[in-house]
Amino acid sequence: MSRILDQRLLLLVISFSASVQSTKVLSEWKKCGDPECEKAMSRVQATTDYLGPDCRYLNFKTGEEIMVYSKLSRENENLWAGSKGKDFGYFPRDAVKVEEVLIGEEVEVLTKETDFLCLHEDKYTFE
């Protein structure tokens, strides 16, 4: 009985650590087209297929169009956030090429907990 309890505890610890890892803050700062990050900054096209490591990331295929709404800055400048249809998430900036710039100036703002929201089976998970 003790062995079963030990195995369950180990699985719980592994599950918890994977959950925390997938909801960690990716950067404390981001650049946007406006202070609320509501305006699209640019329209980009995927230059490669991309499958993200967890649900915070946007998956896409080569040639798909993505609207960019923010770009992480300072600690993690390689990740941009955008949407493709109804899907939204982060993706590496080197996986796309800019087709059209839609804003004149970028604004740097602090990220929020909701920027790193992960949706699992209709439940929201925050760090």
From TrEMBL:
Keyword annotations? Coiled coil, Endoplasmic reticulum, Glycoprotein, SH3 domain, Signal
Tell me where in or outside the cell this protein is found: Endoplasmic reticulum membrane
Looking up Pfam families in the UniProt record yields:
SH3_2
Q: Which PROSITE patterns match?
A: SH3 (PS50002)
Q: Which GO terms describe its biological process?
A: endoplasmic reticulum to Golgi vesicle-mediated transport; protein secretion; vesicle cargo loading
GO CC terms in record: endoplasmic reticulum exit site; endoplasmic reticulum membrane
Membrane topology according to the record:
Single-pass membrane protein
Alphabetical list of InterPro entries matching this protein: cTAGE_MIA/OTOR, SH3-like_dom_sf, SH3_domain
Name of the protein: MIA2 protein
Organism per entry: Mohoua ochrocephala
From which lineage does this chain's organism come? Eukaryota, Metazoa, Chordata, Craniata, Vertebrata
Q: Which gene encodes it?
A: Mia2
